[in-house]
User: What shape does this take?
Amino acid sequence: MHWGIENGLQWCLDVGFREDDSRVRKDNAPENLSVLRQIALNLLKVEKTAKVGIKNKRLMVGWDNAYLAKLLNVGLVE
Assistant: This one.
């Protein structure tokens, strides 16, 4: 059961954030970016108004500042 949860999280990070393609390997940067990706993934999962996948939600956040503000406010309220 543990590996199912671990693999599911890793799959979301790899597909949605292309974590395996990251070339950051120096000092504390890989761990810091991993924590930021996990926070972003959690915020994207909590937001339920957009009926699209994680990858498309990331695109929406990049294109629409109002959606970004909404996403950050959802994280503060929940």
In short: The chain has a mean pLDDT of 79. The chain is about 75% helix and 0% strand. Residues 16 and 56 are 8 Å apart (CA to CA). The helical segments are 2-17, 29-46, 54-63, 65-77.
